[in-house]
């Protein structure tokens, strides 16, 4: 009778351990996805930062020009004459758009990093539970 | 290969060849997607350039040849752009055709491999 009970207890504990390990695996997969997402966002942020720098440089150059200066825009393989005021407005609009995108990306990254930290905590707790579980089993 | 809950299935030489082929096709598929994207962007740029030429008053256009801009008569630039557009469109059509063929081959291989390995293999993208 006692042997039957201990067998039952062992079966239950190994089943619990399996569940914990499965949960840990799922959480680790979630964390991996989050990290990929964060890396992707960082990459985009880098790209936008470079673009912002370039556009600000162009704006500085445009501000140095006289009103009657010739401005050209590259469209495909053709340089097309463009109105200075129009070029100025386009660049400013682009800077506005890129700045807004950067702000949005910053917020997204912050949110993702918070999620990542909470996931890491959960994983750590799960690992501790598994370790204590295994230690308990070892003693038994 | 991702381990599922199914029982162990023996992986034959032929299976391994199919898995390798699927991997190669998948890599080529992603390369093609990038190439198609670039070809489409090039086509759009050429279309924009054509439209700008219609609107411009200048008879001599600064046309990019390699690294430099040359002064080229407007009608010649129009002809050149049309030629480039034609070449790009043909290239795009070829790429799209190859992409369709690759997708069909991948679908066929998926069918074969999933039939044998069920959930012991994962051929899906992340």
From TrEMBL, chain A:
Keywords: Chaperone, Coiled coil. SUPFAM superfamilies: Prefoldin. It comes from the Eukaryota. Residues 10-41, 95-129 form a coiled coil. The keyword Coiled coil applies. One of its GO terms (cellular component) is cytoplasm. The keyword Ligase does not apply. GO terms for molecular function: protein-folding chaperone binding; unfolded protein binding. InterPro entries: PFD_beta-like, Prefoldin. GO terms for biological process: chaperone-mediated protein complex assembly; protein folding; response to cold. Belongs to the prefoldin subunit beta family. This is Prefoldin subunit 6. It comes from Glycine max (Soybean). The lineage of its organism: Eukaryota, Viridiplantae, Streptophyta, Embryophyta, Tracheophyta.
UniProtKB/TrEMBL annotation, chain B:
PANTHER family: PREFOLDIN SUBUNIT 4. This is Prefoldin subunit 4. One of its GO terms (cellular component) is cytoplasm. Heterohexamer of two PFD-alpha type and four PFD-beta type subunits. GO terms for biological process: protein folding. It comes from the Eukaryota. Binds specifically to cytosolic chaperonin (c-CPN) and transfers target proteins to it. Binds to nascent polypeptide chain and promotes folding in an environment in which there are many competing pathways for nonnative proteins. Keywords: Chaperone, Coiled coil. Pfam families: Prefoldin_2. Residues 22-112 form a coiled coil. It comes from Glycine soja. SUPFAM superfamilies: Prefoldin. Belongs to the prefoldin subunit beta family. One of its GO terms (molecular function) is unfolded protein binding. InterPro entries: PFD_beta-like (IPR002777), PFDN4 (IPR016661).
